Amino acid sequence: MDALHSLLPGPGLLPKWLLFVSTVAVANSIQSYLTLSYTKRVYALGGDKVTPLSSRTFGTWTFLAALIRFYTAYHMDNPECYALCQWSYALAFAHFLSEWLVFRTAVLNEGLVGPVLVSTVSVVWMWAVKGDYVGL
Question: Model pTM?
Answer without folding.
Answer: 0.91
